[in-house]
Design a protein that fits this description.
Elements: H1 15-20, E1 23-25, H2 34-42, E2 47-50, H3 58-74, E3 82-85, E4 87-89, E5 92-93, H4 107-113, H5 116-132, E6 137-138, H6 163-179, E7 183-189, E8 206-207, H7 211-216, H8 219-227, E9 232-235, E10 239-242, E11 245-247, H9 255-264, E12 270-273, H10 279-284, H11 287-297, E13 302-304, H12 308-323, H13 329-346, H14 349-352, H15 357-379, E14 381-385, E15 402-407, H16 416-420, H17 423-426, E16 434-436, H18 450-458, E17 464-469, H19 476-484, E18 487-492, H20 499-513, E19 527-531, E20 546-549, H21 555-565, E21 595-596, H22 599-615, E22 640-648, E23 655-664, E24 669-677, H23 686-699, E25 706-709, E26 720-721, H24 726-737, E27 746-754, H25 765-772, E28 775-779, H26 785-792, H27 800-808, E29 814-820, E30 827-835, H28 839-842, H29 846-849, E31 854-862, H30 869-886, E32 891-898, H31 904-908, E33 911-923
Parallel strand pairs: 1-2, 1-13, 2-3, 3-6, 6-7, 7-9, 8-10, 9-12, 15-17, 15-18, 18-19, 19-20, 24-25, 31-32
Antiparallel strand pairs: 4-5, 10-11, 14-20, 16-17, 21-22, 22-23, 23-24, 25-33, 26-33, 27-32, 27-33, 28-29, 29-30, 30-31
Helix pairs in contact: 4-15, 5-6, 5-15, 6-8, 11-12, 15-21, 18-21, 25-30, 26-27
Length: 933
């Protein structure tokens, strides 16, 4: 143990030797290369990062780590190398060996099993296995909180979206690793759980949350792990942009490292930088300068993944920084002390030169195999089984066929499939489905999931059909197989980030829902959807009646899945985080009298309240209520049940708060469309009281399936308003405290294109559209309603059908642009067109807010499985803009657009974002506590 005041061994007076301890480097190859040998011998590099590219097997890994340590020992290193790996389990394992290294669930899979004791056992077993191969530093646990689960690259690498739960499992993993003698590394400080991605590789993802927000959520696991003895911490390369904290790269910022991590959280372990070879950093700053900045910011060890020339540049940069007095000697030796302290806990020369190897791994095998099976069996989660399709043996006779549809994905590093599959094969699918019976021995389908097909076939007398699907969507071969099979199992893997999987699955669900018997009766064909990665794919989509999560697709996970499908295993897993918890309302101490909105009595007072809210909006913000009136909230639609509520002063008739609710019968969706309070009377529980009354009313609606924050119709608040300003940043946690899971929010926005008089389509867009081969037309009125309403049934968003019906009932001011397939005239896409004089415009105040002649484009619906989705969507909008321009309008509003999309195309067409929102949905069945009357 080397403390800050302890005297160092004189050997460390050699500054080159000391500086070598401040780097961790990687290299390519499964054996020692001349480059890594040079770095260890000549540059005294003290830390090595091994990846899957270095590690072929447990036996080879043991040999490699021994050779690296022997080179360091013979070169006179005073202490052994710290040799680290990423071994998170699930899909992130650097070391895989079918014989000696067991597979275990991902962090989220372990959290789904619901036991921190199991987490400790799995972490200890994982650490024992890699320690036997000579590794002494594990890059884990992952302590990120998924404060926004959509489109985040972390996925199942973190335990979920609940800070306390992530903290509990993170500490359990950490303790397990340490029990087996490894040094631990928490990541990715200050959080990768809610990053905004800008698109270019030269742009870094950004954390926009304030320090206050981070402290309440994202920093909780890091803080607790530090208190429990975390050895080291990786600081990410993300940017930070919020009040009081701005950093281009967190790991280069003294505000983040010396300030937030060292001073505020009192961490005195080893701080490791993100890899300085990343494009954004090396391009914008340079690795030499970046190294100096990282060390000055407080990083003890600088990570350089694999480029020998870059690694040399970094070493030279550190020396130059010291020689030019940019880095103090005290800074360097403080870092050295921390590194030596960590090494003293996890290694020694006796341990480094005598790894346990495969002999020790053989002794671990029986107990670890049993632990792996137990962990997976406990993690598999049946989220829903509405029609009781499980086990499949209850609904499938032996002569009936089962169809398995799997996405085209690359295999996980931690799988036998990845060893048998080349990069080329991973991107090629056999066009022919594989047919399985009990004697099948060779399968020609998509190879990543071939073992699952085999396992399903072995478990039943009937045949199993298996084929893959791709971004090309539903093909005739899929339709034929669906019609032929008696039950279908569809697998998805991160469908939120691979949108083709979402569209394909929804298309299959629609076909299954429209099946008929020979007698003409409608009979829903059994469909089981299995998420083999992120559980958020269909967690909130109750139209998928039977939904299972495995959290990864290693062979062991899929074996447990087969047991669940055939009833050999009773699944015990529960979705981790806030999404699975019974949503309980936090009753305010003060309950205001909430009354029904009375149009005659309250309309003038509501207009006055909105004026006060608008006036209370900060000058740099534009209020969503700017052009709304009290009538903007009243739909008068027989297919929508609406109830609106007020808190008012019965003496003065003034309104203190207002809340609107809508129940869309067609989709079973209960919506809170607006909730606002007089700025002078906030924080008095008026909003709580209105919210409680709204939820209680919606829960009583017959057929209620889900709740939603944000309304498509009327289009005032499409969700929780987002953007700059402290008030808006408080809205998200305010609703979260009321029971809404903001981790599954959906970004939506309204957009506007101005100056249509001088507008023209982007170069090449019209030509590209023509070459796509779609046919477009513009139709008006109810005569065209049947095929249009059939088409939009593929989209179950609330308010969509109502918007189309309103448009078709108003042919003088509204129309529908259709895109059709030339061969058979099938509808592929539609969009509503409307002008300022339409009834629809009354419920879309942003159109009036433009303060000029304007028209609107609304509610695009593209058929699932259309391969040219973006082209078709842009085509519909382009034609709409032309029509609006031809009518003499100078502005065009897109009143409701998914914020997940890539807006480069829309920006090129002249659109800018007008308002941003987060639409939040949840299953009504999870809201078990009815607020008091």
């Amino acid at each position: 143990m080397v403390g800050k005041s302890d005297k160092l061994d004189p050997v460390w007076e050699d500054l080159d030797r000391t500086m070598g301890q401040l780097f961790i480097v990687g290299f390519d190859g499964t054996s020692v290369t001349p480059q890594i040998k040079t770095l260890i011998q000549d540059h005294h590099i003290g830390n090595i990062l091994l990846t899957a590219k270095n590690l072929k097997s447990a036996e080879d890994a043991t040999k490699l780590t021994y050779e690296l340590q022997k080179i360091a020992h013979d070169a006179g290193h005073p202490v052994p190398l710290a040799i680290g790996v990423d071994q998170e389990n699930g899909g992130v394992n650097s070391l895989f060996d079918e014989i000696y290294i067991r597979q275990y669930p991902s962090s989220m899979g372990i959290a789904a099993a619901g036991s921190t004791d199991l987490a400790f056992e799995v972490a200890k077993a994982t650490a024992q296995e890699i320690a036997a191969c000579g590794i002494n530093w594990i890059f884990g646990p992952c302590l990120d909180v998924l404060t926004n689960a959509r489109n985040q690259p972390l996925g199942v690498r973190t335990a979920g979206d609940d800070p306390q739960e992530v903290s509990a499992y993170g500490v359990a993993f950490m303790k397990g690793y340490q029990e087996a003698g490894l040094a631990t590394l928490g990541k990715h400080f200050p959080s990768y759980g809610n990053l905004e991605f800008l698109g270019s590789t030269l742009d870094v993802p950004i954390i926009t949350e304030s320090l206050e927000q981070l402290s309440l959520s994202a920093l909780v696991p890091f803080r607790n792990a530090i208190r429990q003895g975390l050895d080291s911490m990786m600081v990410g390369g993300c940017a930070m942009s919020s009040a009081g904290l701005n950093a281009m790269h967190a790991c280069l910022s003294d505000q983040v490292v010396d300030g937030l991590l060292r001073s505020d959280l009192h961490f005195d372990g080893v701080v490791v930088s993100e890899c300085l070879e990343m494009d954004a950093l090396s391009h914008n700053i340079g690795v030499g300068g970046g190294t100096v900045m990282a060390v000055n910011a407080g990083c003890d060890v600088v990570l350089l993944c694999r480029s020998f020339s870059v690694q040399q540049e970094a070493i030279k940069g550190l020396k130059t920084g010291f020689e030019n007095a940019m880095i103090s000697k005290e800074r360097i030796y403080n870092s050295l002390r921390r590194v030596l302290t960590m090494k003293s806990r996890c290694t020694s020369w006796d341990k480094a030169l005598n790894p346990g190897g495969t002999n020790y791994l053989e002794t671990l095998q029986p107990s670890h195999t049993a632990l792996s099976t137990r962990a997976y069996n406990h993690s598999i989660t049946v989220v829903r089984d509405k029609n009781r399709l499980l086990p499949l043996t209850n609904i499938l006779d032996s002569e009936e066929e089962l169809l398995l549809l799997t996405p085209l994905v690359k295999p996980l590093a931690a799988s036998a499939a990845s060893r048998a599959l080349s990069e080329t094969a991973a991107n090629t699918a056999s066009p022919e489905p594989a047919t399985w019976d009990r004697t099948a021995s060779v399968m020609s389908g998509e190879r990543v999931f071939r073992e699952l097909g085999r396992s399903l076939a072995r478990q039943r007398n009937g045949r199993v059909l298996h084929t893959s699907y791709t971004a090309n969507g539903l093909r005739p071969v899929h339709e034929n197989l669906i019609n032929r099979a008696s039950a279908i199992v569809v697998l998805t893997a991160d469908a939120n980030r691979n949108l083709y999987q979402h569209g394909f699955t929804k298309h299959v669900a629609m076909i299954c829902n429209m099946q008929y018997t020979t007698g003409g009766e409608r009979r829903e064909k059994p469909l089981v959807v299995v998420s083999v990665s992120s559980p958020y794919d269909f967690a909130m989509d109750t139209s998928i009646g039977t939904y299972i999560c495995t959290y990864d697709f290693t062979e062991t996970a899929l074996n447990s899945l087969v047991k669940v499908l055939y009833g050999e295993l009773n699944p015990k897993g529960v979705l981790p985080g806030t999404i699975s918890k019974s949503q309980k309302l936090h009753h305010s101490k003060q309950h205001w009298l909430v009354e029904n909105f009375n149009d005659e009595r309250d309309s003038a007072a509501l207009d006055a309240l909105m004026k006060v809210v608008i006036e209370g909006t900060p000058q740099n913000q534009h209020s969503e209520l700017s052009s709304a009136t009290s009538s903007s909230f009243i739909l008068h639609d027989p297919d929508i049940e609406e109830s609106h509520f007020v808190v008012r002063n019965s003496s003065t008739q003034a309104l203190y708060g207002f809340c609107s609710t809508y129940f869309f019968k067609a989709t079973g969706t209960g919506v809170i469309g607006a909730l606002f309070v007089d700025p002078a009377r906030r924080k008095l529980s008026i909003g709580h009281s209105l919210h409680n009354r709204a939820i209680r009313t919606l829960l009583q609606r017959e057929g209620i399936k889900r709740f939603q924050l944000g309304s498509r119709l009327p289009s005032l608040f499409l969700g929780i308003p987002t953007g700059h300003g402290q008030e808006r940043k408080r809205l998200r946690p305010w609703f979260a405290n009321l029971g809404w899971s903001a981790a599954l929010s959906r970004p939506v926005c309204s957009m506007v294109a101005r100056n249509l008089s001088t507008w023209s389509p982007p170069d090449g867009m019209a030509k590209s559209l023509a070459s796509a081969g779609f046919q477009f037309d513009l139709v008006y009125g109810w005569d065209y309603s049947v095929p249009i309403l059939d088409h939009i049934k593929t989209n179950n968003r609330q308010g969509l059908a109502e918007a189309y019906k309103m448009a078709m009932a108003d042919p003088s001011a509204c129309g529908v642009i259709r895109a059709k397939r030339p061969e058979d005239g099938a509808l592929l896409g539609t969009v509503v067109l409307y002008n300022q004089h339409s009834r629809l415009a009354e419920y879309i105040p942003p159109l009036k807010d433009l303060h000029e002649s304007a028209g609107g484009i609304s509610s695009p619906v593209i058929s699932p499985g259309v391969g040219e989705y973006s082209t078709l969507l842009q085509g519909l909008i382009l034609l709409g803009m032309r029509q609006i321009k031809a009518q003499g309008c100078n502005a065009c509003l897109l009143d409701y657009m998914d914020g997940d999309g890539n807006f480069d195309g829309f920006s090129a067409m002249g659109f800018d974002v007008l308002h941003n929102f987060e639409e939040v949905s949840c299953d009504a069945a999870t809201w078990t506590t009815i607020p008091p009357a």
